[in-house]
Specification:
Layout: E1 3-7, H1 15-24, H2 38-48, H3 54-74, E2 79-83, H4 88-98, E3 102-107, H5 110-123, E4 128-133, E5 151-155, H6 165-179, E6 184-190, H7 195-202, H8 208-223, E7 233-240, E8 245-252, E9 256-260, E10 263-267, E11 272-279, H9 283-292, E12 296-302, E13 308-314
Parallel strand pairs: 1-4, 2-3, 2-5, 3-4, 5-6
Antiparallel strand pairs: 6-13, 7-8, 8-11, 9-10, 12-13
Bound molecules: N,N-dimethyl-L-histidine.
């Protein structure tokens, strides 16, 4: 099979230090990257299938409808880097349209990366697959040679919305450096829209998003000897129009005390832990962000209802 493996040896996140630091803030917070243990990743896959969660199916619809135009923009015989080899359906749709020479899936989770790289190499035997285990949220290296040109990157799912805007800019800047002059980035970005649709997408009727949020407490109990009672907290998700972002919180139902890694944290009734921001951009605002990071916006594809956008950017 046409697969090789490169290990950048990413440092595992220090969950203890980051959770303790976040819970010590005047406004308690925990970074959203800690959602994704095994159960959290399963719940996230279930979120992507929910009728209320429009981003996944809308982005797949755009890739299916406009794949040929996207391929035209990125160029033929390209070396394609996928940041966070998440959704197999999205990359399969793009690979079928693009037929790159080399495909480099980048992910921090070795097992997930290898499983999906092998599946894709079997499905596309004419593409050279170079799986790279790396943490793309920090400076990282990839198995690239100088003559691996032209280069393109794919960052789907509006994961860029989970970065604070200055971090999103720094991340895009790093991707631009990796691509070099003339390289292209294809990036999925969720659009600002009616608050009703946003509210429904993060407060689904089956309670899967609530379970995804509350699973963070179960993870902390297991990995950091926490004493959280998940039933003593509830999920809250709302749109913050000032910052153009959805916020997710875990709200304490009553005054209580919790131990985490031997430290005591007090909660008043209604006090929350802020667990996620999901920024929603207008096309214009995302263009401004991309330009600050050194990209030139070239094309944007949106669906009829203007729910989601896929941007083609040139470095
Ligand atoms: C992964 N990320 C783009 C999702 C989002 O919509 O911000 C995570 C998510 N949180 C709640 N539902 C989905």
């Amino acid at each position: 099979m046409n697969v090789s493996f490169f290990d950048d040896h990413p440092e595992p996140a220090d969950i203890r230090a980051e959770v303790l630091a976040g819970l010590t803030q005047p406004e308690k917070r925990i970074p959203p990257k800690f959602f994704y243990d095994e159960q959290g990743s399963r719940l996230f896959d279930a979120i992507c299938e929910l009728p209320e969660y429009y981003p996944t199916r809308t982005e797949i619809g755009l890739l299916r409808q406009y794949g040929a135009e996207m391929a035209e923009l990125l160029g033929h015989d390209v070396v394609l880097i996928e940041l966070g080899s998440g959704s197999s359906l999205k990359i399969r749709t793009l690979l079928a349209a693009l037929r790159p020479r080399v495909y480099i899936p980048v992910d921090i989770s070795r097992e997930h990366l290898l499983r999906s790289a092998e599946g894709l190499a079997a499905a596309f035997p004419d593409i050279e697959v170079r799986a790279a285990c790396a943490d793309y949220s920090r400076p990282f290296s990839l198995p690239l040679q100088a003559d691996d040109q032209p280069r393109a990157a794919f960052f789907p799912g509006s994961s860029v919305g989970n970065f604070e805007p200055p971090d999103a800019e720094a991340f895009l800047h790093r991707v631009g450096t990796l691509l070099g002059p003339g390289g292209h980035l294809l990036i999925g970005v969720d659009l600002r829209k009616s608050e009703d649709l946003l509210h429904a997408a993060y407060n689904d009727a089956q309670g899967i998003t609530a379970a995804f949020n509350l699973n963070l407490l179960t993870r902390i109990n297991r990995e950091l000897e926490g004493t959280f009672d998940p039933a003593a907290f509830h999920h809250s998700a709302f749109f913050n129009p000032h910052d153009s972002r959805m916020e997710m919180h875990l709200v304490s139902n009553a005054p209580q005390q919790v131990l985490v890694a031997g430290e005591t944290f007090r909660f008043s009734e209604g006090e929350s832990i802020h667990t996620e921001c999901s920024y929603k951009y207008s096309v214009k605002d995302f263009h401004a962000l991309a330009e600050r990071a050194g990209f030139k916006p070239v094309r944007v594809w949106t669906d009829d209802q203007q729910l989601f956008s896929v941007h083609g950017l040139r470095r």
